[in-house]
Amino acid sequence: MIRYVTAAVMLRLFSAGPLMRGMYRRLGNVVGARQRLGQGLPGSYVERALRFKRLCEKHEAIGNGMRLLEIGTGWVHWDATFLRLFYDVQATLFDVWDNRQLEAFKRYFGQLEAHLEGEIELDATTARRVRELLRAIAAVSTFDELYRLLGFRYVVQPDGSLQRFEDGAFDLIFSFNVLEHVQADILPQFTRDMARLLRPGGYAIHQIDLGDHLAYYDPIVSPKNYLRYSDTAWRRRYENEVQYFNRVQRPEWLHLFQSAGLVLLEEQRVSADIGAIAVDRKYAHLDRQDLECTALTVVLKKAGSSCSGGHGLPTVPLAGQETGQQR
Fold this sequence. Notes:
- By secondary structure, the chain is of the alpha/beta class.
- Helices cover about 40% and strands about 15% of the residues.
- The protein contains 12 helices and 8 strands.
- An 8-stranded mixed sheet has the order 6-7-5-4-1-2-3-8.
- α9 (about 185-195) links the parallel β4 (about 170-175) and β5 (about 200-210).
């Protein structure tokens, strides 16, 4: 528990005002970049991307000409770019602050081909396409060049609001370990906005980490140690802004999505033994399976007619495509 508390104290210190938050982000970028360049492409990234691609294909949620929104695109635009290797899609890459790392991006995708050869069977045409795109990615010197190559757009919205986007603007909206970081009080509006942005028949696929993020610093602590604390105790002692997570549980997520008008097509859960922790009354109504759920993946669909690949996106980058950071 010592490491758990120490991590909470340090993160709350870094949350104390814009100057400290800015310092935390700069340090995180420097240290993170060194780590990513040193370690190279994690096998877990490849496994996740392949699962995501298969899930999209299973539900016919991906196809040429589709418009994608990646929420929380992070350091290396991993998932949107992975799909772009196989499909001519147009992606908007959305985040709340700019933490892009071009060298790490190029390192990851430079090492991807070797992984794919052993983990996925590609026909000759697809293999040639993937190799050509990977070579083109390796040759870019700026993110703007990358966005022109792939037909991507990068958007930074510091308050995390999706209201800038038009109704029905996207065929597929997705995120990985991002939604748990959205402030709990804006989640109802945020999920309604996600549904609004989908065309009728469009899809949303999200992987949500329900674990206690402070427990990652202390392996002897329960993976859902936060269940012990009331909202008041949590806010006073442990909650922070630089690594905020909302403690929303599986039934609440499903209710949020349903209330927004999204239909659940598939659900995948990861669970862990949480031990004999004394659960606060805030969570007392949940059954054991929900309490032990540490990760949730959902495939959702917006009601309405569906048309696949109907937006006419060309197979070459769009001339004059809007690129770069948008504020």
